[in-house]
Known about the structure:
Layout: E1 39-44, H1 47-55, E2 77-81, H2 82-91, H3 112-117
Amino acid sequence: MTNARNVLGGELETCCTSPMTGFYRDGKCSTGAGDIGAHIVCAQMTQEFLAFTQSSGNDLSTPVPAFDFPGLKPGDRWCLCASRWKEALDAGVAPPVVLSATHALALEYVSLAQLKQNALDFP
């Protein structure tokens, strides 16, 4: 995990620590054998995406105290499942991404060009 790379080839940067995100809840979109959902895309939540994912059966807006999950609101950054981000892209509601904090394995799900078109940190 310590040598994780981002989609640009650099060191994987922190996505968010408030709320604390990442499969390992370390603020990074790191992954490993237990991460079946591949929570590797650092995305900034939008109302459109949150409504989309809720309608698809994954409510990210409602807090779940039992899992120390605060619920997300527009503007929060979160490590999303790569397949969910791709579904949102295909539906025209993909939230913007932070390339420097998106794990290189995301390129197995989407192209770098698709990520760049939706990037917050790419000119």
